[in-house]
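Researcher: Let's do a round of design. I'm pasting the structure tokens now; please hold your answer until I've finished.
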């Protein structure tokens, strides 16, 4: 069997041009040149092209589906956070010390001796509605960080 028919046979079995070139001991362009002489090569090439396009389309659709689901979950989480913020900042409700401190945690330092969060005066003047210090157990402190 000559190299041309062997190359066609391997190509029709599903081998790639690079693999055929390695088996026959020739370059990839030489394999392409050999295969172009056969009409079966062009038919197989078109079949592979359509199959590849089909796989790419399926992959894109799956990616879009996953992206939509991810966006939906992020949007629902954002809505929940927004509802919580609206509820806590509404005029009807009064913010508890915990919520106030949680919103302004960067202005508080933890005093280990007194087990308290103490307002850091170097951060600026303390607003009247913020407590100067709040007792926080060290186990509970994690929820503020």
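Researcher: That's everything. Go ahead.
Model: Designed sequence:
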């Amino acid at each position: 069997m000559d190299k041309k028919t062997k190359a066609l046979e391997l190509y029709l079995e599903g081998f790639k041009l690079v693999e055929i070139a390695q088996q026959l001991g020739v370059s990839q362009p030489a394999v392409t040149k050999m295969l172009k002489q056969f009409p079966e090569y062009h038919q197989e090439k078109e079949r592979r092209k359509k199959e590849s396009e089909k796989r790419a389309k399926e992959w894109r659709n799956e990616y879009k589906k996953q992206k939509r689901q991810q966006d939906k979950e992020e949007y629902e989480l954002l809505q929940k956070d927004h509802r919580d913020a609206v509820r806590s900042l509404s005029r009807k409700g009064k913010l508890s010390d915990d919520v106030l401190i949680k919103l302004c945690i960067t202005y508080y330092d933890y005093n280990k001796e007194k087990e308290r969060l103490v307002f850091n005066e170097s951060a600026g003047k303390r607003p009247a509605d913020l407590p100067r210090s709040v007792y926080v157990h060290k186990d509970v402190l994690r929820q503020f960080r």
